[in-house]
Design a protein that fits this description.
There is one protein chain. The chain is 45% helix and 14% strand. The chain has 436 residues and is α/β, with parallel strands linked by helices. The chain folds into three domains: 195 residues, NAD(P)-binding Rossmann-like Domain (Rossmann fold), CATH 3.40.50.720; 82 residues, N-(1-d-carboxylethyl)-l-norvaline Dehydrogenase, domain 2 (Orthogonal Bundle); 136 residues, 3-Layer(aba) Sandwich (Rossmann fold), CATH 3.40.50. Strands 3-2-1-4-5-6 form a six-stranded parallel β-sheet, with helices on both faces. Strands 11-10-9-12-13-14 form a six-stranded parallel β-sheet. Helix 4 packs parallel to helix 5. The protein is elongated. The protein starts with a strand and ends in a 9-residue tail after the last strand.
Length: 436
């Protein structure tokens, strides 16, 4: 199959590389000439484990190319994977780039083509894409399909190559056959293929992310209760997660969800639902609680330090919204760090991959070269992102370099009894604290 991927950002690049790995001929298209130039040299614009090798291998094999030209004329399927950022003012997804891509595709395709929305888009977008193409070029021979992505940053390649399911919204047998051929390697390993109409596929993406965001918010509120009554949220999460109706995933307490999907998608779903006359009150409450939680985590650090961090040095471990990515979008650190600074704290931070981007978004921070350097001279150490390497840190060494042995562990990566046994003042999230 010949596939064109419009947009070489996170979704487009990962999807394009994985389709090439399937054996398809793929061209990834982007208007950013600098990005395309870097990709042709094998330089990745994002950090995603294993992506650089996959891109390089498939370029060498001749299955993957990058261009600034709209090279879609010979494609069997053209995927739209451009950005859909939150629109200022109302929280809706900004579909400017999606609709612009649709108009450009209309004038460039030659034979029958399936135009696929891979970007996360509100319900109704597929219909509008079809209208734009038909209006721009009435003679175009095409079908529109919806094929939402379900990729976790940091595990995107595995998610693409071994997905729980593939959701495809199509409304013609011809389009279904093309999409089945695109995903034939997954059919061969009996991956569930969920074929629906276009609207159902679009809603499925938003519903999935909203449900996961709700699980995170639910366990965070249960963690608050556990702290008040002396329970351990991890035992609670295990106790309910072993129920097959609930499941164990996304029941990890922390400082709130962030990233490129959950904040944006819950806002867009809430907006779309209000417009349709079916308000999603649970989702709207999830959004409110999550925004407030990030700020409350800064307050948690201040309270732990006796009500004031003025003049204190706060060491921060982790700035990205999750490990194994350099993505800072809506990261809890973007709320926590400025609030601590406003309260008078000096911030020394370390993140294995996110410091370059963090430097553009956070001001007046000292960036450390290692986690131990971030802890050196600190009056309190705050864990914001649960990078795996932080779990292997030597607590004794941390204690030696800190000015005061105090840790606020917002990801619960350390063992409370061990840390307190070593002489740390320690506080996690949703765990009994004998100091209270």
């Amino acid at each position: 199959m010949r596939i064109a991927m419009i947009g070489s950002g996170y979704v487009g690049l990962v999807s394009g590389a994985c389709f090439a790995q399937f054996g398809h001929d793929v061209v990834c298209i982007d208007k950013d000439a600098d990005k395309i130039g870097r990709l042709r040299k094998g330089e990745m614009p994002i950090y995603e484990p294993g992506l650089d090798r996959m891109v390089t291998d498939n370029m060498k094999a001749g299955r993957l190319d990058f261009t600034t030209e709209l090279a879609v004329a010979d494609a069997d399927a053209v995927f739209i994977a451009v950005g859909t950022p939150t629109r200022r003012g109302d929280g809706h997804a900004d579909l400017t780039y999606v609709y612009a891509a649709a108009a450009e595709i209309a004038n460039a395709i030659r034979g029958y083509t399936v135009v696929v929305t891979k970007s996360t888009v509100p319900v109704g977008t597929g219909r509008e894409v079809a209208r734009i193409i038909r209006e721009t070029r009435p003679s175009a021979e095409f079908d529109v399909a919806s094929n939402p992505e379900f990729l976790r940053e940091g595990a995107a390649i595995e998610d693409f190559m071994k997905p729980d399911r593939v959701v495809i919204g199509v409304e013609s047998q011809r389009a279904r056959e093309v999409m089945s051929a695109v995903y034939r390697p997954l059919n061969l390993i009996q991956t569930p293929m969920v074929f629906t109409n276009i609207e159902t596929a679009e809603v499925t993406k938003y519903a999935g992310n909203a449900f996961l965001a709700t699980k995170i918010t639910f366990i965070n509120e249960i963690a608050d209760l556990c702290e008040k009554v002396g329970a351990d949220v991890h035992d609670v999460a295990r106790g309910i997660g072993l129920d097959g109706r609930i499941g164990r995933k996304f029941l990890h307490p922390g400082p709130g969800f962030g990233g490129s999907c959950f904040p944006k998608d819950t806002l867009a779903l809430a907006y779309t639902a209000r417009e349709a006359g079916a308000p999603q009150t649970i989702v709207e409450r999830v959004i409110e609680v999550n925004v407030a939680r990030k700020k409350r985590m800064a307050r948690k650090v201040i309270d732990f330090c006796g009500g004031s961090v003025a003049g204190l040095t706060v060491g921060v471990l982790g700035l990205t919204f999750k490990p194994n990515t350099d993505d800072m979008r809506d990261s809890p650190s973007l709320d926590i760090v400025p609030m601590l600074q406003s309260a008078g704290a000096k911030i020394v931070a370390f993140d294995p991959e996110g410091m370059t981007e963090a430097g553009r978004l956070l001001k007046d921070i000292t960036f450390a070269r290692t986690a131990y350097e971030a802890a050196t001279g600190a009056d309190v150490l705050v864990v914001i992102t649960e990078w795996h390497e932080f779990r292997g840190l030597d607590p004794r060494r941390i204690k030696q370099v800190m000015r005061q042995p105090r840790i606020v562990d917002l990801r619960n990566i350390f063992d409370p009894e061990e840390m307190r046994g070593l002489g740390f003042a320690y506080e996690g999230v949703g765990r009994p604290n004998p100091q209270n």
